[in-house]
Amino acid sequence: MGLDNANRIILILSGKGGVGKSSITTQLALTLSLQGHSVGVLDVDLTGPSIPRFFGVESAKVTQAPGGWLPVPVHDSQPYPTQSKETSGSSDSIRENASIGPLSCMSLGFILPSRSDAVIWRGPKKTAMVRQFLSSVQWPALDYLLIDTPPGTSDEHISLLETLLKDTADRPSQLAGAVVVTTPQAIAISDVKKELNFCKKTGLKVLGVVENMAGFVCPNCSTCSNVFSKGGGEVMALDFGVPFLGSVPVDPAFVMLIEEGVRPSYPEGTSVMGRELDTKPVTEEAHGNEESLVQKYNSCSLYPIFDGMAKQLVMQVGEGNR
């Protein structure tokens, strides 16, 4: 089975489109990798496969192997960036001789001839594709497999969960649970509540709620303004009795990192959760390929937030034994 090498499987869910599930999945994957874990990302959002673009591997193609596909590598295991050790501001977060864990991903985007091609499939074909992804991808040994899902509770979700429950029946702890993503607005909260009810009815454990787009980080002064209000996700988590993992603001520097490959840079004196951020000016050299995405993400203001979230998840689900 394709999932045999994944010690823990975590689904990223939301009942609402456009709340940033793929962004949350990407940053959780990068953060877990920075913590030294081996990570895989499976994109089952068949009509909007954006994971290849987030990781900067759009031009890659999957490789056929006996029995299935090999996932696309994003980066291999590598030494932790020296600069990060000097500027982290948190001595206990960096281990001596620490290394970044390997990261790979799989998406329908690697199979389509063009990123602009529309996927016009009926439910049965989507269901078959989801099951093929779960059974035919030959993952390397993974500590965590993150599955980025489409919005709602559609055919893909039912097929995904049925297959996962069947394939992990002899090892229930392998299917660790779900991270549910929302934005602060009341209209988004009302839709995401349906996803929490879906998890409750299907017996899927909710590992926590993430409130995305909870504020906007000004690129000039680093002040965070609550453009879309804040706190709705935390209240919803409290109402459903599930953990609240945290609030994530919109950071234009992260957008530039994904779109242009520019290492994040902030005004002097900017710190997040006790961690002083990189204030070096962005030069033309920052557009080069000398550094990997994960090394550049280490300078992002959102990384300390996701570092805390990832540690909560690791404490909840552990890594298990291969």
TrEMBL record:
Top-level taxon of origin: Eukaryota
GO biological process: iron-sulfur cluster assembly; tRNA wobble uridine modification
Predominant location category: cytoplasm
Binding positions ([4Fe-4S] cluster): 218, 221
A Pfam family matched in the record: ParA
Database matches in PANTHER family: CYTOSOLIC FE-S CLUSTER ASSEMBLY FACTOR NUBP2 (PTHR23264:SF19), NUCLEOTIDE-BINDING PROTEIN NBP35 YEAST -RELATED (PTHR23264)
Name by which UniProt lists this protein: Cytosolic Fe-S cluster assembly factor CFD1
